[in-house]
Every structure is written in C-alpha cells, then in structure tokens.
C-alpha cells in the first residue's frame, strides 16, 4: 500500500473516531429486570428494548431517536454513496441454490440479485420450465418475511403441502402452510394432509 493511501485511511479513521466521540446519544432507560439461567441470576437492564417496535411506543421512540443520531453521522460521510454503489454492484447478480429432488419433483431457490429473499421454484425435470412455488418477497410490504428453517425440511413425501416457520423481519415467528399447486397461504395453522 502506498504511503499516501495509508495516510488518507489513517486520517479518515481519526476523524471518524472524533465525530463518534462528540455524538450525543439518546438516554437509554435502565430497568431492574433479572432472568435466571441454570440457577444463575443475570441482570438485564435493557430487557424492555426487546419489545416489538411496532406495538411499544417507548421502544419505537427510542429506535427513532437512535436512527436520527445514526443518520446524522452517516450523512457526514462523503464516500457513503460510493460505498453503496460499489456494494450494490457487487451484490447485483443472479444466485441459485443447488436443486434437490423430493417426491419426483425438483426444487430450486433463486434470487435475481437484489431481492430480500430467495424465491422457491419447482420443476418436473431438471431442464423443465421453473414455476414459482412461493415468493417470500410478497409476504410483507418491505420483503422482510423469510423462511426461518430451511424450506427443504418442510417438504412432505407427496409435495402436496409445504410447511415452514417464518420470521416477519422483527424476529417474531409464525407457522406458514402452503397448500396445493396454486399455492394458497395460511398463517398460524397446522397442515392437514389432503
């Protein structure tokens, strides 16, 4: 590495450190909460921050205040858009899982490059026309709902039903059943064998 590059990087690190040191972070309330794990009491003063940001006003206000501080700092980075552009360029390529066979059909997941979640496809043969089995990107407005367990583990021997546990982007889990060839989605259900 050239000396000028090393000096420029060092200056960036020093200036970034100074900017962070001068940041006034919002106050984080502490509570007197304890959990017990295998006979050991563990103090967890920030347990209240584990509440769902969508339903707890205090957590929502805390997250918004933290985001304001973070965004104010990130907005000072002159190279932020360059980094975003480069990462987008690096991540924007088509990706596939390895295909697998179950009950006489083939399955593969595909991501066009910048999708939040992989889309699951099914085919009658390896060189057959792929059909969308399900697309987790359509399960929520922001595309953050995702299968938590490998979807492959949820396939039955007849492939008439698919089951998986999903997260909704905020670590809350739900069961999801996907039935039949037209893919009807039912939430919080158990699969009934058809």
Task: Describe the SSE topology.
Layout: H1 3-21, E1 34-37, E2 40-43, H2 57-74, H3 80-91, E3 95-96, E4 100-102, E5 105-111, E6 119-123, E7 131-134, E8 146-147, E9 161-167, E10 173-179, E11 184-187
How would you briefly describe this protein structure?
With 194 residues, the protein is an alpha+beta fold.
Supply database-style keywords.
four-stranded antiparallel beta sheet, alpha+beta, five-stranded antiparallel beta sheet, 25% helix, 194 residues, disordered C terminus
Walkthrough of the structure:
The chain is built from 3 helices and 11 strands. The protein has helices spanning 3-21, 57-74, 80-91, and strands spanning 34-37, 40-43, 95-96, 100-102, 105-111, 119-123, 131-134, 146-147, 161-167, 173-179, 184-187. Strands 3, 4, 5, 6 and 7 form a 5-stranded antiparallel beta sheet that branches. It has a 4-stranded antiparallel beta sheet with strand order 8-9-10-11, with no helix packed on it. A two-stranded antiparallel ribbon has the order 1-2. The longest helix is centred in the N-terminal third of the chain and has 19 residues, at 3-21. It is flat, with a radius of gyration of 23 Å. Residues 179-194 have low confidence and may be disordered.
Weakly predicted, low-confidence segments = 179-194
Strand percent estimate:
25-35%
Mean pLDDT: 77
Give the ordered list of helices and strands: HEEHHEEEEEEEEE
Distance between the termini: 65 Å
- Main pleated-sheet profile: 5 strands, antiparallel
What is the general shape? Answer: flat
Radius of gyration: 23 Å
Classify the secondary structure makeup into a structural class: alpha+beta
Number of helices: 3
The count of β-strands is 11
Instruction: Give the % helix.
Output: 25-40%
């Amino acid at each position: 590495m050239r000396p000028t590059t090393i000096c420029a990087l060092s200056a960036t690190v020093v200036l970034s450190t100074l900017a962070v040191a001068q940041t006034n972070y919002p106050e984080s309330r502490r509570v007197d909460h304890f959990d017990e794990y295998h006979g050991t009491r563990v103090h967890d003063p920030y347990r209240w921050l584990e509440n769902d940001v969508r339903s707890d006003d205090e957590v929502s206000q805390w997250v918004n205040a933290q985001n304001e501080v973070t965004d104010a700092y990130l907005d000072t980075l002159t190279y932020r858009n360059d980094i975003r552009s480069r990462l987008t360029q690096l991540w924007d390529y088509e990706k596939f899982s390895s295909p697998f066979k179950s009950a006489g059909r083939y399955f593969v997941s595909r991501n066009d490059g910048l999708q939040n979640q992989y889309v699951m496809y099914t085919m009658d043969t390896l060189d057959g026309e792929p059909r969308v089995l399900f697309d987790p990107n359509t399960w929520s407005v922001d595309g953050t709902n995702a299968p938590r367990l490998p979807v492959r583990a949820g396939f039955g021997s007849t492939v008439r039903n698919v089951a998986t546990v999903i997260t909704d982007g905020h670590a809350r889990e739900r069961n999801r059943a996907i039935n039949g060839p037209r893919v009807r989605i039912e939430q919080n259900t158990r699969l009934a064998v058809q």
